[in-house]
Amino acid sequence: MSYQNTNLIKICLVEDDNIIREGFVTLLNENQGFKVVSAYNNCEDFLKNVQNDKPNVVLMDIELPGMNGIEGIERTKKLYPHAQIMVVTVYENDDLVFKALCAGAGGYLTKNMPSQRLVEAIREIMNGGAPMSTNIARLVVASFQKNHNSPLSSRETEVLELLSRGKSYSNIAEGLFIDKETVRTHIKNIYWKLEVHSKAEAIEKAMKEKLI
Amino acid sequence: MSYQNTNLIKICLVEDDNIIREGFVTLLNENQGFKVVSAYNNCEDFLKNVQNDKPNVVLMDIELPGMNGIEGIERTKKLYPHAQIMVVTVYENDDLVFKALCAGAGGYLTKNMPSQRLVEAIREIMNGGAPMSTNIARLVVASFQKNHNSPLSSRETEVLELLSRGKSYSNIAEGLFIDKETVRTHIKNIYWKLEVHSKAEAIEKAMKEKLI
DNA sequence: CTAAATACCCCCATATTGGGTGACATTCCG
DNA sequence: CGGAATGTCACCCAATATGGGGGTATTTAG
Q1: Which of A32, A54, A147, A202 has the fewest Cβ atoms within 10 angstroms?
Q2: Chain A hits for B106, Cβ within 8 Å
Q3: pLDDT (tens digit, 9 = 90+) per residue, B68-95?
């Protein structure tokens, strides 16, 4: 049983471009089961009303006058955690995508989508999905992928992984059932291979090159 | 311009269930632009042939006799990095999903999908997307989301974040333009709030509760 | 206004880290 | 087969980092 068959989906819009905003209002209200309860051109006004509007879904732009969308997502999640927030923006910048997801976005669409995609995405996010534009999904998945040409051996990778979790040499030795001296040897070799001279540098380089 | 208009998409299958495997072969070969170049019931045989088969897309099961799919993905990426690997499995287990993505999977479908979804997903992965089943996408997006009820202040979160990157107190102090003693105070407060007594414990707890 | 957050200071003991050098067994690849 | 890479352990040393204890003062947000 899907959600939209039993309840009206209440939608809020936060989008500063009047043309786009009004276009979305019209598009969405044409769909049975959707109701746009309110549409704002900035986050501040939206946040004042979110607890009255009680939206199921919020379509949020990122580039906004005043408070930006990322901050807006965070505050929305604090004030009304129940809402599903879908980012709708022109930006495909890596950093913004991850910040938005960390802040609590449940979906991320770029504005170059066909408008019917928006309708599908709203149903999808209400049914427990996480709708994303093609490129965004790829970005997200790519962020997990490890470097398949790591200079580190598997044991070294294991050690570095534990080091990156804040473990001391002794902790690591216990965890791997080897001697602390062996851990030290591994770490020396890791430093040599990565051309670094400290834990922080090693972790930084390893993260950047997706070795861990 | 999309890929499948100009080239035949070569597909390999790795799936131990004979019925499912043959069903996929039939389904995919019916589609213009697709060619199943070979179908295996285990990873070992597939890996022996991948460099000859030169697939554009590999549909990989996870639960397999002998080598499992995760290991299979890793080895495939080493032998023939060009291939896009799509996991097709019954498992929706968190751990397996993330391991598969880390290993190099470019898409992740569960077997309860409508069969036409598989066809779409193959076109999608060839066009730079990362097709995922609804629940998988949600899992992946949820893995980014931070706890919106952190007991830590924003400054404390910042400090803990840097600590988790292996930085020393002095490093952190420099990075935040504050005194080392201030960093120490913050860390003492963090430990008190998280009820821990060491860096490793703090980082572990913070990761688990998605505070950082 | 008051509590929380932020920032800074001191003391002390212990643990951790980084660098140097050397050794021995196993495993894997050519 | 043989050498390279890997994984394991040992001992030296000095500098730094860490955790716990005790304070104080200013700023900020509800």
Answers
A1: A32
A2: 138, 141
A3: 999 999 999 999 999 999 999 999 999 9
